[in-house]
Amino acid sequence: MVDNANALGIETTKLPSGALLIDCGIDAAGGLEAGRQLAKCCLADLGSVEIVPGSTEVGGQLAASPAVQVYTDQPVAACMASQYAGWEVKQGDFFAMGSGPMRAAANKEELFEDIGFIESPAEVVGVLESRQLPGEEVAKYLADACGVAPRDVILLIAPTASQAGNVQVVARSVETTLHKLHELQFDLDRIVSGYGVAPLPPIAKDDLEGIGRTNDAILYGGEVTLWVQGDDESLEEFGPKVPSNSSADHGRPFGEIFANYEYDFYKIDKNLFSPAVVTFMNIETGKTQRYGITMPDVVKASFFGE
User: What are the φ and ψ backbone dihedral angles of 199, each rounded to 5 degrees?
Assistant: First the structure.
């Protein structure tokens, strides 16, 4: 990305400590390809991300529109140990949700006790979802947490309401499924591969609206397929609990739900945070099980106000 900064519309800055910042959508314009590569960084380059044809109903007609497709054969390492935005980075007046492979070096989350994948690298790469570029204090905090020098830290930053940020958030369809299964205490080691696709929303006017649209893309338009091992009976037990319609909050645009809970994520029913549809393909028994339902009307209302 650094070598192709001009073509990607990104800007790089090196702090006095040597930490490298890659602006993908704050002062820099960014773009679709910047977002695609940003999403791959979130996955520690252990998965593929593409922008593919999709469709959305507009004005009573089915209109071609982009969607974000992601797949991986290392789903737990790629999605849980790296892509999941499980690190709240707070330093002074700076706040960001942190993801990317630096999380496995820091090992600050209880999640790693269950999944492993802890690392002691010489350099770290992190992704910050924020509208503010981090300074030296943040770079030093992250370096110390990861056990490296600040000069060995690379940070990619993009806000939700940007082209790159929009893509990288919607590329989390498989990750949200695995996180939901982990919350349900499903054995993630049974998951061999994951594939997901979700509609790419229009860029929002601000980050709050962007959070609503990107969540709606996955909650009401996202479809995920997991290739799994083991028995079918446990899948029948877990399956109905996985998609977003297992939540009592399901059925309304996320922005409305968020406002009703006073913009506090932790007040929202955690069962809501998963794709609209989840399909399990058992590679041992050959049985396929599909759960959930997409809600195109909610997606359309969120994206286009219709």
Answer: -65, 145
Cα–chain center distance at 132: 19
Q: Quick check: 146 and 44 in contact, CB under 8 A?
A: no
pLDDT tens-digit readout, 251-282: 999 999 999 999 988 899 999 999 999 999 99
**Domain containing 51 — which CATH number?**
3.30.1030.10
Q: For residue 108, is pLDDT > 80?
A: yes
CA 112 – CA 199 distance, rounded (Å): 30
Residue 71, strand partner residues: 48, 195
Give the whole-angstrom CA distance, residue 172 versus residue 179.
10
Domain of 254 in residue numbering reads as: 5-304
3-class secondary-structure state, position 104: helix
Over residues 115-131, the pLDDT tens digits come to 999 999 999 999 999 99
Let me know the angle formed at the C-alpha of 297 by 174 and 207, rounded to the nearest 5 degrees: 60
- Do 38 and 167 form a contact (C-beta atoms < 8 A)? yes
Assign 62 a pLDDT band (cuts: 50, 70, 90). Answer: low
Q: How confident is the model at residue 60 (pLDDT cuts 50, 70, 90)?
A: low
Number of structural domains the chain divides into: 1
